[in-house]
Every structure is written in structure tokens, then in C-alpha cells.
Design brief:
- With 178 residues, the protein is α/β, with parallel strands linked by helices.
- The chain has helices spanning 2-16, 22-25, 44-61, 69-77, 87-91, 131-145, 158-171; strands at residues 31-33, 37-38, 95-104, 107-115, 121-128.
- Strands 1, 2, 3, 4 and 5 form a five-stranded mixed sheet that branches.
- The longest helix is centred in the N-terminal third of the chain and has 18 residues, at 44-61.
- It starts with a helix and ends in a 7-residue tail after the last helix.
């Protein structure tokens, strides 16, 4: 009886305790960034995969493992009948992240919706004149929410932005665009 009461008390304390992100608890956290949902616009063609790759790279550079964008795209292109398990299981990632990109006046707003598969959802967003900068800032906010320290961000050069667009076109099998 004493053991039963002790277990009941422990369970009640765990239920009432505030949620601590799994990264802060020391659990292994692996992310997978999905293609961005982009508001229609002139520049949106490259952003579906470009923003996905920018967020994943930012998470990786700050020490949060992230499934390579090529693997995510390959899995999403595979027929569902050929997949085993859920998307989360197939990617071996417990944190799925969906970027959302929209033009707001002269700026870009990037929101990141993350789901850890254990019933906890996280959202972060940022605005900037450059969509990639907004994506990096939103990723930094998500990292902070997860108890991780983002690394110092460097200004992206015009050449690196072009490379990101080429990479996005290559991920989309758009060799002419690349």
C-alpha cells in the first residue's frame, strides 16, 4: 500500500510539473525540417525548399541534429505505399518543424511550427527584410525555446544567397532553374 501511495504521489507531481522541452531534459532530440509553406508571390518558387534548408542548417550549426534536406525531400517524393511507418518514424526524427513564409509589406515573416511527437508544440516567428534572415532569427528563437544556445549568426553574402537558391532548385529537381 505504501508503494502504491508513493507511485500515485510521484505521478501527480509529474502531471502538475511544467513542461520542460526534451532538449533541456537531456533527451536526444533530432529534428526534421519539412518544406516551407509559402504565401504565393514572385520569389516563392525557391522558398519551399530554400527556407527548409536554411532552417535545418541553422539548427545543425547550433548543435541540434537535423535530418539532411535531401533525405526529407526524397522521402516526401517516394510513393506513400513504399513508406514504412509515419513520417516521423521514417525520418528517425522526434521533432518535426514546418516553416511558414509570408510577405508582410516590405518584410518577410517566417514562422516555425514544431511538434515533438509527445504532445508538445512550439512556435517561433521573426520578421526581416530578407526571408533567409527571418528564417535564421525564427530558428534562433526555436532553439532558445528548446533550451539550446544559438551560435553567433554571420551576415549572409549575396553569393551564399545565390548558392542557397541553387541548392533549393537542385532539391526540387529543377536543373534549369539551378
Amino acid at each position: 500500500l505504501l508503494i502504491a501511495v508513493a507511485l500515485w504521489a510521484l505521478r501527480m507531481n509529474q502531471r502538475d510539473a511544467p513542461h520542460v522541452p526534451s532538449a533541456a531534459r537531456g533527451d536526444s532530440l533530432v529534428s526534421a525540417v519539412l518544406p516551407a509553406v509559402v504565401e504565393p508571390g514572385d520569389e516563392s518558387a525557391w522558398m519551399h525548399l530554400g527556407m527548409m534548408d536554411a532552417v535545418a542548417a541553422r539548427l545543425r550549426s547550433s548543435g541540434l541534429p537535423s535530418v539532411p534536406s535531401e533525405d526529407v525531400v526524397a522521402l516526401l517524393k517516394a510513393p506513400e505505399a513504399n513508406r514504412t511507418g509515419t513520417l516521423r518514424e521514417a525520418l528517425a526524427a522526434n521533432l518535426l518543424i514546418t516553416p511558414r513564409v509570408q510577405r508582410v509589406g516590405d518584410a518577410w515573416k517566417v514562422s516555425l511550427d514544431a511538434d515533438d511527437g509527445a504532445g508538445h508544440q512550439y512556435t517561433s516567428d521573426a520578421d526581416a527584410r530578407d526571408a533567409a534572415a527571418a528564417a535564421r532569427a525564427a530558428a534562433d528563437k526555436l532553439l532558445a525555446t528548446l533550451g539550446r544556445q544559438p551560435v553567433e549568426a554571420k551576415e549572409e553574402s549575396a553569393e551564399s544567397i545565390i548558392v542557397r537558391r541553387i541548392d533549393a532548385a537542385a532539391l526540387a529537381d529543377d536543373l534549369d532553374g539551378a
